[in-house]
Amino acid sequence: MANQTSNSSRSLSREIPLWRDERVLKVAAQILSAVLVIGLLVWLAGNVVSAANQRGLSLGFRFLKESAGFPIGETPIPYDPSRSFAYAFLVGVLSTLKVSVVGIVFATMLGIIVGIARLSSNWLVNRLALAYIEIHRNIPLLVLLFLWYTGVFITLPRVQDSITWPGPVYLNQRGLFITWPRLTSTGAVFVISILAAIILASVAWSMLSRYQIKTGRSTYYGWVSLAILLLVPLLGWFLAGGAPVRFDTPVLQGFNFQGGLHLTPEFTALLIGLVTYTAAFIAEVVRAGIQAVSRGQQEAARALGLRYWQVLSLVIMPQAMRVIIPPLISQYLNLVKNSSLAFFIGYPELFFIGRTTTNQAGRAIQVILLVMTVYLAISLITSLVLNIYNRRIQLVER
Amino acid sequence: MSRKMISIFTVFMVLALVITSCTSAPTAAVATEQPTAMSQQPAVPPTAQPQAAPSGYGQAVKAIRDRGKIICGGRTDLAGFGYLDANGKNIGFDIDICRAVAAAMFGDPEAVEVRPLTAAERGPALQTGEVDILSRNATWTSSRDAQWGNFTWVVFYDGQGFLVPVDSGIDTIEQLDGATICVTSGTTTELNLADAFRQRNLNFTPLTFEDTASVYNNYEQGRCDAATSDKSQLAAVRSGFSDPSAHKILDITISKEPLTPSVPSGDDQWFDIVKVVVWGLIDAEELGVTQANVDSMKSSDNVEVRRLLGAEGDWGQADLSISADAIATAIKAVGNYGEIYDRYMGPNGDAFTLDRGLNNLWTNGGLIYGIPLR
User: Fold this and answer.
1) Alpha-carbon distance B124 to B262, whole Å?
2) What is the ipTM of this complex?
3) Which end of chain A is more exposed for a tag (fewer CB within 10 A), N or C?
4) What CATH number has the domain bearing residue B310?
5) Which of A54, A154, A158 sits opposite B218 (nearest CB)?
6) Residues B173 and B230 in one domain
7) pLDDT bracket for residue A12 (50, 70, 90)
């Protein structure tokens, strides 16, 4: 029987000429398009190289070792103009990562809150969330950044007339200056005790909660974990013998405040712009995820007597996450890439330093290649990590 | 169903095509310029003579002639040097240099297309041959000369200074220790600033923008304690502040800034033409030839004047393939060096008034010196 069919198909294929055989055509189309794409890439690369040769431009990367010479305003690691172009580039990469990581954390938190608020049955909350989302989704990010930077931060009072909040926290057009805890020489013991408390508390939580589920006897695991979380660091504080933390207060000295935590207007405007903009998109993703969970689930959970927040956190969100994660990844990538708009408001991130290097080293092609490679690497790593997480939370089907 | 989808898709495609063709129409003038600038000028040398020794000689000149106008890398945002007049026309000291070259080449100072560039864009624009002349107050330095192209002749001797609010009480660079300083990125200014502070063991926080307007807007708003740039530029922007008298330029010069028009490397003939036009403008001032008297001066007693104006003798115009009266045409179009300076920065200058200082002729104690045309 099987033999017969294969025989008949073979005889059939013999009748069909090669150029009308679907299998041949499929393969041929693939080969043709591959050749076209590769050919185009080779042609483009060859074009760049020949154009560079023609103008006597070097395409090497040796310039990266030379001294950069230009100053950078805000650096996550110590930098001075005598360092190399490569080091200046590293500063840019770290600045991009800094604003991206902080931005992703805050955008996720804000996005989830707004997304849930958007589904609230409270009319006012619902409409406010809707207005927030529509405003932020429909205005270009660059405009929002200029609004925050030029419209808000630069128009704040001058240093001498800073707005003072308890803390003390100072706000002026040079940024936000916050009293910030700094570790003293005995700080290590305290930090270790905090880490120990976190580990102990999470162990206690998981063991006791499992015990409670197994036996049905109440273990008060929430309270026990909280107690560990508070008591162990307290013990660490006393063990440290003397204050392990000192509060660094900003003081007006010369042109500017010294000490404390300083958030520059450029960084803050960029962070707020990125967070509020991306959060609007994340809110929609969250809403879509929650709505993807059938209403029956929610009703069943309510019928079991779970409270609103329990329904949300134990029933709805775990299922919604499966729908949320994939589009959330692209929002994270968008945030990372959008951070390059910082260029226009003077926050020296990767693209900004790339532009300056292009000019000061006179090597446009190499710098653009480097910048592209780094963004690509950051994006690929981000999506790789999130894809692993996504695979873990996917519904296990048997 | 799928047939419906296909027809909808087709309609969208047609719509998209129609829309793109519509929107590209107004920009067509610019869009078509781009390929000619890109393809004609740089692409001609390799096809014409791939391995000939002086490879690009005359090629840029030919491309410019074929195009019928000069593409001039300039700016629209700096009073005095490159800015817009009340009618939106791009004018300024740097722009007039381009206009003078256009007059010498085509007999028409309007045969110029100005491409506004930011400080950071100008190097690549020159390297790739996107512009024929870069006349955008660019400082001549050895590494730029090596990387960007060829620098022709210094047209403005400048130095880097600091702009501070008068009420800050700052007079010296030492008093700027710890200050936030606004500066344009991608400039020599940025590098000199770092050097000057490092040398004196002073600290500062730079705030850099590529857009000149952002730099001075942030300074004026008080985000920075000082702004730094070429003194001419500081004078220019101060004139545009809401209260110019509240700001002063410190009496410190931390660098030499020879502002020089440059041309892409490759075509020495083009390089020479631009130089000779600049020399002609300077020599004209020295010899007393002005926009007003250029025609009558053609019959001057002074043989140097007659040679400059092409009435007698030769100054290499045949080798440069431009007409003998090219310099005369240029002077008639924009005036001599001093007239160009005064038009924008002289006592009754259009933009602001800046003492000529180093930019006086060498005969008046300045540094402006033209090579003789003969």
Assistant:
1) 13
2) 0.78
3) C
4) 3.40.190.10
5) A154
6) yes
7) low
